[in-house]
Amino acid sequence: MLCLLASAILAPQAAPKNLVYNGDFSLGVKGFTTHYSFSEDIYKEGTYVVGDDPKKHHGGGFSMGDHTSGKGRMMIVNGGSFANDSIWEARVKVAAGLTYEFTGWAASWSMNPHDGTATDLTPGRFQIYIDGKPTGAVYKVDAKGGHWGKFTIPWKSDGARSVDIKIVNTNTSELGNDFAIDDLWFGIKQEKKPG
Ligand SMILES: [Ca+2]
């Protein structure tokens, strides 16, 4: 008992754990719910797939790799024209009085039909909801195809319970509005080391 205690104290501080199951989508369609409809081809607004290249699922899409390794899987979404659609939603257990952080990566994958460049005319705009409340500023996905950008949402827990995390797309345009998300992470916020 004493030995166990000593080793626990001496053990180096572990990196905060990711409370999101399958946040890198390596396990496919697992660990989340969504208002979107699963479809191997994503020509229709409001559909999604978990795959390794948007072009394989939409002939007019930009060919790009995932954020994790460039060769893994990501959630590939054809943004819907309905309001308050949740792209991705999951429940996590939190402890009281701690500051958490929800982070994730997003990139556009649609082409500009006018000039053929990999530029989304109306990129996705995400509002994150934690415990049912809009949290943090709206995150605008980079319009350029395959340019992964990170969103970071800090959140403080006021009690020990399980909370719902939800990514909602506030862009309801049928034009463009095509994006992928990857490497979703929720955990205790890491303190910055001095210096
Ligand atoms: Ca991935």
Uncertain regions: pLDDT < 50 for 5+ in a row? none
- Helical content band: under 10%
Mean pLDDT: 92
Count of alpha and pi helical runs: 1
Based on secondary structure, the structural category is mainly beta
Using the alpha-carbon principal axes, give the shape. globular
Tell me which CATH architecture applies here: Sandwich
- The CATH superfamily name is Galactose-binding domain-like
**Major beta sheet, strand line-up:** 1-2-3-10-5-8
Biggest sheet, in brief? 6 strands, mixed
What does this molecule look like?
Helices cover 5% and strands 38% of the residues. The chain has one helix spanning 2-10; strands at residues 37-38, 47-51, 74-78, 85-94, 99-108, 125-130, 133-140, 149-156, 161-169, 178-188. It is globular and about 50 Å long. The protein has a single domain, classed as Sandwich (Jelly Rolls). The strands form two sheets. It has a six-stranded mixed beta sheet, with no helix packed on it. By secondary structure, it is mainly beta. Calcium ion binds at residues 24-25, 66-68, 72-74, 182. Residues 24-25, 66-68, 72-74, 182 line the site of calcium ion.
